[in-house]
Design brief:
The structure holds two protein chains of two kinds. By secondary structure, chain A is mostly beta strands. Helices cover about 15% and strands about 50% of the residues of chain A. In chain A, a hairpin with a 2-residue loop joins strand 6 and strand 7. Chain A is elongated, with a radius of gyration of 21 Å. Chain B is an alpha/beta fold. Helix content of chain B is about 35%, strand content about 35%. In chain B, strands 2-3-4-6-5 form a five-stranded mixed beta barrel. The radius of gyration of chain B is 22 Å and the shape is elongated. Classes of the chains: A mainly beta, B alpha/beta. The interface between A and B is medium-sized, with 25 and 30 residues.
Chain lengths: ~190, ~140
């Protein structure tokens, strides 16, 4: 009766060992920008210190960004953004947790630009909503880059715009994402 | 008649200067922190320690403050929008202090390389996996 036990043990050990290790890609300087164009003023802000993780096998994708790290051209815009709109002292981070739906179509070993669809949960100003968007994964000489663009409605995230300036601030904001990943050391 | 003109002139001047300063105020560019004194001088290790121990307390203490740190550069990156980011060693390979340089510091940063020891001040914006400082100014290069 001993033998089947050992056999199972051996199978188990080999079974575990042969499960492919996950390949994780990481970035700590993801570029995240947003643009809003209203009749009076074009507003744009950039952030180059976003974090992102991408798991090659499962397509799991995560982003995190600090609201206060968005840089504006004008001091007053930045102040209004942080204090009145996103309340960044109360809600310092914005995050995205989701996955690339068609990750199997991305060949990480072959150069190319692969169109992808992404879905997940986006949190901003303490409010979480489902979002779906598309983007691209570019593989070039082993380097992995990701790009995407999507639009959100300010009202969806309970961001109040004072009536006085309601006509001057756009109701929609376009967010662009541009990341170059590094493979995380497997050690 | 003369009195009347005086009033008109006064109103025009008042309105003009109000408009001028109003316009200036609304369009004021972001101020550099180059001439401002740091609120806190701390080591990257200690800063990380405080953020990992109690992020909320550290946020309350450090957000929007000018922080001066000195440490070893573990990497230097340039974004596609030409922003330069320097990472400082905290002793933990998974977390650094990320210093996003003010655009005017670009020329100074060319002398900075991996392994350099530098002194930097910047505005603390919080912690992701790294603690992020923005609008950073390089104060000195302490590399021997």
């Amino acid at each position: 009766m001993k033998k089947p036990g050992i056999l199972i043990l051996i199978l188990f050990v080999f079974g575990v060992a042969s499960v492919p290790a996950q390949t994780k890609y990481f970035s700590r300087n993801a570029n995240i920008s947003f643009y809003s164009s209203a009749p009076l003023e074009k507003i744009e802000a950039h952030n180059t210190s976003g974090n992102s993780v991408l798991v090659a096998e499962t397509g799991q994708l995560e982003f995190a960004v600090l609201m206060k790290a968005f840089g504006f051209e004008k001091a007053l815009m930045e102040e209004h953004f942080n204090e009145n709109y996103v309340e960044s002292s109360k809600f310092p981070k914005s995050t995205f947790k989701g996955k690339i739906e068609n990750i199997s179509s991305v060949d990480f070993t072959k150069d190319g630009i692969y169109p992808v669809t992404v879905s997940g949960k986006f949190t901003l100003h303490g409010v979480t909503k489902d979002i779906n968007t598309s983007g691209t994964i570019e593989i070039k000489n082993g380097e992995v880059k990701a790009k995407s663009e999507f639009t959100i409605l300010i009202a969806d995230y309970e961001i109040e715009i004072p009536k006085l300036v309601a006509d001057k601030v756009a109701r929609e904001v376009k967010i662009t994402i541009n990341v170059t990943y590094q493979e995380l050391n497997k050690s | 008649m003369k009195k009347y003109l005086k009033y008109v002139a006064a109103v025009i001047i008042a309105a003009g200067s109000f408009g001028y300063f109003g316009y200036y105020y609304i369009n004021k560019p972001k101020e550099s922190i180059a001439r401002k004194e740091p609120d806190v001088i701390i080591s990257p290790q200690k800063l990380l320690e405080e953020f990992t121990a109690d992020e909320q307390a550290a946020n309350a203490k450090y957000l929007d403050k000018i922080i001066e740190v000195s440490g070893k550069v573990t990497s230097k990156n340039k974004s596609e929008s030409n922003k330069i980011t320097i990472l400082l060693d905290t002793g933990d390979p998974m977390s650094s202090v990320t210093c996003e340089l003010s655009p005017k510091e670009a020329s100074k940063s060319s002398a900075v390389d991996e392994g350099s020891i530098i002194e930097v001040k910047g505005i603390c914006t919080g912690m992701l996996s790294d603690i992020v400082l923005v609008d950073c100014i390089i104060l000195s290069d302490l590399t021997d």
